[in-house]
Each structure stands twice: as C-alpha cells, then as structure tokens.
Design brief:
five-stranded mixed beta barrel; binds S-adenosyl-L-homocysteine; six-stranded parallel β-sheet; binds FE3-S4 cluster; binds iron/sulfur cluster; Rossmann fold; alpha/beta
Length: 475
C-alpha cells in the first residue's frame, strides 16, 4: 500500500498516476474499469464515479479485459500528462477492436478541455464527461449503449457531490481523501485548472464532517481534505435563530479534528496568499492535525510571480514560511516550482534557487513550464525560454532540492515520532510502513509487538534515505 500512496503523491502532480483496483464481490451484472491520472482531486472524483456506477449495477474490475465500460479520468496540467493519456487510449482502442460492445469513456480535465473534439480525434471514444457532470454518467452510458456518442461537459457553480458517499478504491483502509471544494478562482496565468474545473465552490461543512466520521467508524485513521486552494474554503448557513453560521477553513479543520483525537487530519493544497494565522494556530492546537503544509511557491522572483498572477511577492512568501515556523517549529514544508516560465531570466532563476536555499523545503514537485492552450499565459505571453534552458534550470532546481531533502531526512536521525501504520512496507512483510505528522514515510521492523495497520506507534529514527526514514519501535 505504501507504494500506492507514494505513487499518488509523486506521480499525480506529474499527471501520470495510475490506479487499478480490486474486484467488487459478484453482485453486479456489468463491470467497469477506471484509471485515474492527475491530482488527488481526480482520484477522489473516481471514487465518486464508482459510487454513481455501483448504483447503476456496475461493479468494479481491476482488469480492463473483463470490463463492459472502460473509463479514464484524465489530466491536462502539462502537455506530457495529456500525451500519457492518449497513449493509454491507444491501448484501450485495440481492446475495443476485438470487443466491439465495449464502451470507452473519457472523464476529467482533458474531457473538459477538448470536449466533443475528443470524439473526432479519438473515434473509438464513446463517452466524454467533464468533472461536474458525473451524475449524468448513467444516462450517457445508456445513450452510448444505443450507439449514440454522448458528451456532457457542462460546468456547474453548485455541484459538490456532497450527498454522494465515495466508494474507496484500492484503499489501504487507513487513509482517505475527502473533497471539500471544487474548482478554482485564482487564474494563475500558466494554469489550465480554472478552465477544466470551473468556478470555486465549497462543499457543505456537515457533509464533510459526516464523511470523516463515517470513515473513522469504518476504521480509517487519516483524512486528507482536498481542494485546489483549501484556504479559501468558505461555507455559510443560517442557523435556527436566523443568524449566519460561517465556516472558514480553520473552523472546518477544527470540526474534522474533533471527530476523534485518533483521526489524523491533513489537507492540500494551500495558497501562500490565503493561508492564515488562524489556520496555523488551529494546526498547532490540535495534535491530530498533521504538521505539514504543501505551499507551492512556483518562482522565487517577484516579477515572474506577478506574470504568473500568483498575487504575492517573494518577500510575502518568505514571511509566510517564517510565520509557519514561528508557530510550528517542526512543521513539514513542501512546495511546487516551475522553471522557465515566459521571459524568466537567468538572474530570476537564481532567485528561485536562492529562495529554496532559504526555505529548505523537505520535499518539492518540480516542473518545467508547459504552455497550455487557452490559458492566460498562452494568450498574453510568448513561451520564449528555449526548451534546453528550461530543462537545465529544472535540473539545477532538482539537484538543489535533492540535497535539501537528503539533509532534511538526515536531520531526523535520533528523533522519535508518532507514526500511523498504513500497512506492510513494500520491501518486506516483516516491516511496517507509515507516516509521521510531517508526512515523511517511515519503515520499521514489526518485531514482537502485536500491532495492526491503523495503530499509532512511537518510532525512533536510526537511518535515512532522501525519501524514507528507517527506524525501530520504542513504545
Ligand atoms: N492548486 C494547486 C496546484 C495545482 S497544479 C496550487 O495552486 O498550488 C499542481 C502544480 O502543477 C502547480 O503548483 C504547478 O507547479 C504545476 N503546473 C501547473 N500548470 C503548469 C504548467 N502549465 N506547466 C508546468 N507546471 C505547471
Ligand atoms: Fe491553478 Fe493557480 Fe488555481 Fe492552483 S491556484 S489550481 S495553480 S489557477
Ligand atoms: Fe490535472 Fe485537472 Fe488535477 S488538470 S492536476 S487532473 S485538476
């Protein structure tokens, strides 16, 4: 399971994660197969889709050769992510040639970006469904069964799938994603997400807490609250005496943390312009809210940040990091960096390296800029940094980060952490693996202790690689 979690975390951001899952029991007469690419939101959406399809009598299969319906939940974030999906579709097409009754559906961000064009380009695709239209999937499948090509890519201002209880796919039974909002209003100029996922909207706070409670009751011990910009979560309702009850992200965190002290709460992603002291204090106050923040910086230069429309400066970002460390000295911190955005100079790139040097991130997702059709940057600016320069700058960024990651993990040697056991380690059934609050993966021998996944255990770190802490149980 550790493999899987790691895969989601590292590859999702690169738009290439792949997630097959186990067969449902034989209570369904039709079978669907679903693969997900892209961010955690997409994985979470696939679990909503699974729930909608179960209701319609479709059971899941982990083998597409057995499926009546093959779905691919797609990502558009970088060109490479789209290429990966197209390659995969070519393979599904071959299956369809041998099995003409098979239906192939494209879901997610590419469906939204390309819409009906998909049906022209990929003749064997039968169904195209955007991220806000999954409720219409059963009727689209019906139409497609009748030989009609079916498309629904309508974006919504309201849809949050709040009432749908996601079917946990390929789950370790310990950790789960919970979507708290959809869409994004930020309009970073490089980014396709506002176009593929539409306007930002927050999900009913009670449905979120109920989902966390339900997960806890079923033995889950960690939830990750998901949104493109969780700090702008905002939900209001009129209470019985007519007053307005406001739920900010800090409040929501608290409500989820109060489900049980044994339920860990994580979240992703935070935007440097929006993360508040209130959130930081709430994190510090509750032991079960993990001390880990993913705070994408994108660039260390203020002019580039402005061109990106990130709406903060280098100094603002540095002051946020300082604040995080004042309030939570041990907080884990990771980031996203883009190299070679339009007009980025060598000096500006150096400023990114310098900012990384100052922040010392524990981990980072690093990309070279990939122009996406229709985005503000594609319309306004020339993609003028040559590919080899983008790549060289990215290599420098990665090299620097690798050093910082290695150092961060090494610094933990000798420390003890509370770890939530997620399952057997990928190397050996004699070892457990799990994460500490700072989101670092730890591996340690099971020894004589009678423990199970989902248990908390105190582990002392004896050794470290740049991505794993190796330790032993001390209590
Ligand atoms: N909502 C999150 C990130 C979503 S996309 C946030 O605002 O932080 C994940 C990461 O992909 C981004 O942080 C960015 O670093 C990267 N990314 C997005 N668009 C990109 C593009 N056109 N080229 C290269 N990287 C991109
Ligand atoms: Fe994209 Fe910016 Fe929204 Fe993140 S905050 S999804 S980078 S537009
Ligand atoms: Fe990709 Fe869409 Fe997520 S573009 S990163 S799957 S929101």
């Amino acid at each position: 399971m550790a493999d899987f979690v790691e895969k989601v975390i590292d590859e999702t951001q690169q738009g290439a994660a792949y997630k097959p899952f186990a067969n449902d029991p034989n209570q369904y007469n039709k079978r669907f197969y679903i693969e997900s690419y892209g961010c955690q939101m997409n994985f979470s959406d696939s679990e909503i889709v699974a729930s909608i399809l179960n209701e319609e009598g479709f059971g899941a299969t982990g083998n597409y050769m057995d499926a009546d319906l093959v779905l691919i939940n797609t990502c558009s974030i970088r060109e490479k992510a789209e290429q990966t999906v197209r390659k995969r579709l070519t393979e599904f097409r071959k299956v369809k040639e041998e099995k003409p009754g098979l239906l192939i559906g494209v879901l997610g961000c590419m469906a939204e970006r390309l819409k009906a064009k998909f049906l022209e380009e990929e003749k064997l695709v039968d169904i195209v469904v955007g991220p806000d239209a999954y409720r219409s999937l059963p009727s689209l499948v019906n139409d497609a069964d009748g030989g009609q090509k079916s498309v629904n890519v309508l974006l919504s201002r309201e849809e949050t799938y709040a009432d749908i209880s996601p079917v946990r796919l390929d789950s370790n039974g310990v950790t789960a994603f919970v979507s708290i909002m959809r869409g994004c209003n930020n309009m970073c100029t490089f980014c396709v997400v506002p176009f593929t996922r539409g306007r930002e909207r927050s999900r009913d706070a009670h449905s979120i807490v109920n989902e966390c409670q339900d997960l806890f009751d079923r033995g889950f011990r960690e939830v990750t609250l998901l949104g493109q910009n969780v700090d702008s979560y905002y939900y209001t309702e009129a209470n019985a005496d007519g007053n307005i009850n406001e739920v900010t992200f800090a409040k929501l965190l608290e409500m989820c943390a109060n489900v049980s002290p044994l339920l860990r709460v994580r979240f992703s992603t935070s935007h440097p312009k929006d993360i508040t002291d209130d959130v930081l204090h709430t994190m510090a106050k509750y032991k079960n809210i993990c001390e880990y923040i993913h705070l994408p910086v994108q660039s260390g230069n203020t002019r580039v940040l402005q061109l990106m429309n990130r709406t903060y400066t280098r100094e603002w970002y540095l002051s946020k990091v300082k604040r995080i460390r004042e309030i939570m000295p041990d907080c884990g911190l990771s980031t996203d960096v883009i190299s070679g955005f339009c007009t980025e100079t060598e000096e500006e790139h150096q400023e990114t390296l310098d900012l990384m040097e100052q922040c010392r991130f524990d981990m980072a997702y690093m990309f070279s800029y990939s122009e996406r059709p229709g985005t503000l940057a594609a319309r306004r600016y020339e993609d003028d940094v040559p590919e080899d320069v983008k790549k060289r700058r990215l290599t420098e960024i990665i090299k620097l980060q690798n050093g910082h990651s290695a150092e961060s993990y090494k610094n933990d040697i000798g420390k003890t952490f509370e770890v939530l056991i997620e399952g057997n380690s990928k190397r050996s059934d004699d070892d457990w693996c799990g994460r500490n609050s700072q989101n670092k993966m730890m591996v340690f021998p099971k020894g004589e202790y009678k423990l199970n996944k989902g248990d908390y255990v105190t582990v002392k770190v004896n050794d470290a690689t740049s991505a794993t802490l190796i330790g032993e149980i001390v209590a």
